[in-house]
Task: structure prediction
Amino acid sequence: MSENQLPFPLAEEPDDISRETGRKLFAGEVDFLKGVVAMSGLPPDDRIEVCFAGRSNVGKSSLINAITGRKALARASNTPGRTQEINYFTLGDERYLVDLPGYGYANAPVKVVEKWQALLKQYLSGRASLRRAFVLVDSRHGIKPVDEEIMTLLDKSAVTFQVVLTKADKIKPSQYEGLLKQVRGKLAKHPAAYPELVLTSSDKGDGIATLRSIIAGIA
Result:
């Protein structure tokens, strides 16, 4: 069975038109709008919205910086759990790109962690304009129980999510098959999972054009 016939195949490289559409979208205006600490602070849900979720230290800030082509748009940090707000970015005139707080282990007081985890759940279950959540999974570790908790929440909220494997350059090519088998096995239990995986490396640029074209194509 070929790779693209398997359940949850890897997303194919975009064709020239899709690649250019994605490039143009992210070559335009991408600006930080606001950091939100409560649902009341969310901007109007008057445009298409995609969000990025992932365990602390999964490489979320680095990936957002890579797809937007801005080195410091999302503040990368080696301190897990530094992002404690829902950070909104405008992507042109018709889209929001949303950076969610890291979940799982966080180097912060328990009450702070609980507060932003509650905000994360409220957002995922109550944002009508959210078209897709990109759930980032570290290629070195595969899907962990804490990832599955968020995936289950997305299932319950009927929010389509797509797994993006980060740091693909940190594992050997011989490890890909085992990684993909583990991820596919876990995703089979989640009805809200989009049936395509994206393999990325922020450092090498792998998968960046693919991810840009996917976001540009979400209507």
In short: The helical segments are 16-27, 60-68, 110-126, 145-156, 176-187, 208-217.
